C-alpha cells in the first residue's frame, strides 16, 4: 500500500497536487476539506458544527474529524493506497491516523510538505475566492487560517521528521514543475 500524506499551508497546492497524484498512481483520495464541505452542503449535524469553525478559519475539533475519517476509510476499502489531503492537521490527528492504519495492517509511506511563501498563499486563495464561492476564501478568514496553520499544524512537520517520513517539496513554480518534484519523492519510497 502506498499511503501519502500531502501537507502544507492553506493554498499550498494540496488539493491541486492530489488530483495529479491520483491519476498517476491510482490512489484513493480522502480530502477532509471536501468531506466537510459535502456535509455542510447536505446540512447534516456534522456539517452545521463544521460550518461555524470553517467560516472563522479554525480547525474542526479532532474527535469529530477522526470519527469522520474512520468512516470514510472503511467505506473506501482502498486497493493501492490512499492520498490523505488536509489530514492530519494536528498531532492528535497524526497519532490517530497511525493507529487507524496500523489496525488495518498498513502505515503512512511518506509525508510531502509543500512549502510556499506566505504572500503567494494569500494571492492564490484570494484568486480562488473570486470563483470558488467558498465562505473561507476571504482575506480575514485566510489570515486566521494561516495563524492556525502556524500554531497548530506546522509543528506536525517535526512529528513526521521523527517518524522518518518527512519530505520537503518546494511548492513555488508551475503546477507541472511542482508535480515533477512530488513524483520524484513518491518514486523514492515506492
Ligand atoms: P481544505 O479544504 O483542506 O483547504 P485548503 O487548505 O484551503 O486548500 P488546499 O491547500 O487544498 O488548496 P490548493 O492549495 O490546492 O480545508 C478547508 C478548511 O476545512 C480548513 O480551514 C478547516 O477549517 C477545515 N478542515 C479541513 N481538514 C481538517 C482537519 N483535518 N482538521 C480540522 N479541520 C479541518 O489550492 C489553492 C488555490 O491555489 C487553487 O485555486 C489552485 O488552483 C491554486 N494553485 C495551486 N497550485 C498553484 C500553483 N503552483 N501556482 C498557482 N496557483 C496554484
CATH topology: Rossmann fold
Largest sheet geometry: 5 strands, parallel
Count of alpha/pi helices = 9
What structural class do you assign from the helix and strand content? Answer: alpha/beta
Small ligands present: BIS(adenosine)-5'-tetraphosphate
Under CATH at level 1, the class stands as Alpha Beta
The total tally of domains equals 1
> What value does the Rg take, in angstroms?
16 Å
- How many strand units? 5
The 3D shape can be described as globular
Strand order of the largest sheet: 2-3-1-4-5
Account of the 3D structure:
The protein is an alpha/beta fold. It has a single domain (2-183), classed as P-loop containing nucleotide triphosphate hydrolases (Rossmann fold). The protein contains nine helices and five strands. The protein has helices spanning 14-25, 32-41, 45-55, 62-76, 91-103, 118-132, 139-153, 156-162, 175-189, and strands at 4-8, 28-31, 82-85, 110-115, 166-170. The chain has a five-stranded parallel beta sheet, sandwiched between helices. Helix 2 (32-41) crosses helix 3. The chain is globular, with a radius of gyration of 16 Å. The model has no long low-confidence stretch (mean pLDDT 96).
Strand-helix topology:
Layout: E1 4-8, H1 14-25, E2 28-31, H2 32-41, H3 45-55, H4 62-76, E3 82-85, H5 91-103, E4 110-115, H6 118-132, H7 139-153, H8 156-162, E5 166-170, H9 175-189
Parallel strand pairs: 1-3, 1-4, 2-3, 4-5
Helix pairs in contact: 1-9, 2-3, 4-5, 6-7
BIS(adenosine)-5'-tetraphosphate binds at residues 8, 10-16, 32-33, 36, 53-54, 59-60, 65, 86-87, 89, 93, 124, 128, 136, 145, 174-175, 178.
Amino acid at each position: 500500500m502506498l499511503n501519502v500524506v500531502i501537507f502544507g499551508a492553506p493554498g499550498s497546492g494540496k488539493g491541486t497536487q492530489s488530483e495529479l497524484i491520483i491519476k498517476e498512481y491510482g490512489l484513493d483520495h480522502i480530502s477532509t476539506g471536501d468531506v466537510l464541505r459535502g456535509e455542510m452542503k447536505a446540512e447534516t449535524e456534522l456539517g452545521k458544527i463544521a460550518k461555524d469553525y470553517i467560516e472563522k478559519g479554525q480547525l474542526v475539533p479532532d474527535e469529530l474529524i477522526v470519527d469522520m475519517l474512520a468512516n470514510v476509510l472503511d467505506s473506501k476499502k482502498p486497493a493501492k493506497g490512499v492520498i490523505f489531503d488536509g489530514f492530519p492537521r494536528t498531532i492528535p490527528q497524526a497519532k490517530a491516523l497511525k493507529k487507524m492504519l496500523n489496525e488495518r495492517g498498513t502505515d503512512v509511506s511518506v509525508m510531502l510538505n509543500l512549502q510556499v511563501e506566505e504572500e503567494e498563499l494569500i494571492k492564490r486563495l484570494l484568486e480562488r475566492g473570486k470563483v470558488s464561492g467558498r465562505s473561507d476564501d476571504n482575506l480575514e478568514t485566510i489570515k486566521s487560517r494561516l495563524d492556525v496553520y502556524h500554531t497548530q499544524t506546522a509543528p506536525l512537520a517535526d512529528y513526521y521528521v521523527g517518524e522518518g517520513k518527512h519530505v520537503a517539496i518546494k511548492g513555488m513554480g508551475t503546477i507541472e514543475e511542482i508535480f515533477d518534484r512530488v513524483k520524484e519523492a513518491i518514486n523514492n519510497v515506492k
